[in-house]
Fold this protein.
Amino acid sequence: MNKLIDALATDGYYIWDDFLSEEEVTQLRDCIPDNWKKARIGRNDDVTRIESIRSDKIQWLKPAMGQPIANYLSKMEEIRQEVNRHFFLGLFEYEAHFAKYEKGDFYQKHLDCFKGNENRRLTTVFYMNESWSEEDAGELVVYDLNDKEIATIPPRGGRLLVFLSEQFPHEVLPTNAQRFSIAGWFRINGVRDNLLDIAS
């Protein structure tokens, strides 16, 4: 955890290999749902489906999906508390979904903060892909706000990426193999259209 805190303070992002053991990754994979939804862009009434921007499918995480999911969310809670203790970000909630990319799927470059609704402050991406090879492609490419590429990250199983949501545009390159991950966001509460905006 100390390496995560130090990296966020200096670089704004951290790649945490072997965040979970192979056994824990397998247990999470066993919780992957069968009923997928086409991923969309935006939040609440602004949600749209634009396949030219992203082509993956998702399913939101819920503790009732199984003990491995509850364990994963518990680890995210530990990160939330530790980050708040060091950086006073006021992270209040965590929302996350499974993401499935089939061969050829991608997600064009984007920021995780919605325009006019910047409650997402810290992004996590956890990979559940066994025996991932260079030929499988599907890397996550991270940029700075000046559009300079700063990291290309293969989606190897057990790897966790954590980064400041407002600082790093990123994209998922087209994949040559089925690809699974958990994308999540630590959020602060805010007000939008005169309503309290809380993750659900």
